[in-house]
Amino acid sequence: MQFEHLVQINDPQLADVRFLSRAQVWFGLVARAYKPEKFILGLVNCTIHNRQQNGETTVLSRSLNYGSFVIHDTIALHEGSHTENNIAANEFCGDSCMTIRIEEPEPQQLWLRFRYEVGSPEHENPESELMQAQMDEARRQAYRAADIDTVKMIRELALSVPEDGQSGLTH
Question: What InterPro entries does the entry give (predicted)?
Fold first, then answer.
């Protein structure tokens, strides 16, 4: 399944909503990589096993503990641009990828583009096309809701981060 959608960060039509800088949005995406339990409902904790720096890209190898199951992934933080999360195949899906990209079509017009590529599980149960379509739609709705929650958390974090995105978040 492939799914992509946009969430607007700054809307000039909403004067009462605080505009965020690109640096503040980036700070939120970095916080999501290092402390995903603050962003992902049901996530108990995250263990970072390895951190590598390659130029302006940081790559984290992690285990995400949901209590009854654990997911292993890597997340690449492409400085100021986007994150790319590669999830190892598990009982729920095959190898999958989620990308969150900051887009700025006009100055201060910030958007986040969420893109999902979800592989089928290796031992997929034989299901009808209708059932698979319903599952995919439920997954899209869950992703959309989680991504809106991510933006809400980024807004909360931005209240404590200057516009240049600098703060005490330690890697």
Answer: AtaL (IPR015075), START-like_dom_sf (IPR023393)
